Amino acid sequence: MKSEKRMFVSFILNFIFTIFEFVGGILTNSVALMSDAVHDLGDSISIGVAIYLEKKSKQAKDFKYTFGYYRFSLLGGLITSIILIIGSTIIIIEAFKRLFNPETINTSLMIYFAVIGVIVNGAAALIASKGKSANEKVISLHLFEDVFGWVALLIGAIIMNIFDIQILDSILSILFTLFIVYHVFRNLKSILEVFLEKAPKGFSIDKIKENLLEEENVKDIHHIHLWSIEGNIPIMTFHARLSHKVTIEETVQITSNLKNRLHNLGITHSTIQIEFFDNQCEDLDCEDIEIEDGNHNHHHH
Q1: Are residues 24 and 133 in the same domain?
Q2: What is the 3-state secondary structure (H, E, C) of the chain?
Q3: Which of 137, 172, 195 is the last residue of a domain?
């Protein structure tokens, strides 16, 4: 199933189920059930936003967005995270209020809702888990958390039904919400790292530099920039100073060899500026730092 179709099916399932949950929360008077409803509402909104942005991210690059629209997918993940943080805050406030003033809950009805919750959320999570983009990962992760939440809710409802511990509803709600917030912040961190143009995970500038310097006639590699468009597509720009004068044909060959070396390391998009041994680097920020992210002086040739 295609990315958009997978997410659309998840969206429909989620949206219908959110309405069902709100009804369940009102009928059972359970804040834990309402916390799930709010989170699922957040999910539905964010999956809707994500479907649009995921589609947008697959548009071909143009003169406005010269790197393409890949980061629109990340933007979807960012909006999702913000919605979930707001929803979680509302639920935690309500749950804390109830800790001190426990309310009566219809636990037997709650058990029925929890069983259906496990089944429906499980189906949606499995569909979304086939996705690869940052956006789909955020959504599938959250849907799996929802499944665990429903299992916890089911166990809690059974315990409350047998032992009549009404406060357990608020405790479950708080624990569940804190768990989700923790994961949202982890996802937020990885999304922001891409926006702030941190060197992608799994790439060592030192090792890349070492590899490139093995190329014959290359004396120095500097002015290195390594970043990623959306977490999976690394891009690199750098200056390569040659050790002695070479012909144009040799320069083309050296550039091609350097690109092949990068290709073997997993970097398929690179811009290389060749400098000759007696040339000084003309850029103001040419002094090399070990890892220097985010300052793109692209050199097209």
Answers
A1: yes
A2: CCHHHHHHHHHHHHHHHHHHHHHHHHHHCCHHHHHHHHHHHHHHHHHHHHHHHHHHHCCCCCCCCCCCCCHHHHHHHHHHHHHHHHHHHHHHHHHHHHHHCCCCCCHHHHHHHHHHHHHHHHHHHHHHCCCCCHHHHHHHHHHHHHHHHHHHHHHHHHHHHHHCCCCHHHHHHHHHHHHHHHHHHHHHHHHHHHHCCCCCCCCCHHHHHHHHHCCCCEEEEEEEEEEECCCCCEEEEEEEEECCCCCHHHHHHHHHHHHHHHHHCCCCEEEEEEECCCCCCCCCCCCCCCCCCCCCCCCCC
A3: 195
Give the pLDDT confidence of 32-44 residue by residue, as tens digits.
888 888 777 877 8
Q: Please write the tens of the pLDDT for every residue from 57-82.
A: 777 788 888 888 888 778 878 888 88
Based on the domain organization, do 159 and 214 belong to the same domain? no
Tell me: do 210 and 119 sit in the same domain: no
Q: Which of 8-12, 53-57, 132-136, 247-251 has the lowest mean pLDDT?
A: 132-136
pTM, two decimals, is: 0.69
Domain span at residue 223?
199-301
Q: Which pLDDT tens digit goes with each residue over 202-215? A: 899 999 999 999 99
The answer to whether residues 31 and 134 belong to one domain is yes
Domain count, the chain: 2
Domain end, chosen from 143, 166, 195, is at 195
| CATH number assigned to the domain comprising residue 67 | 1.20.1510.10
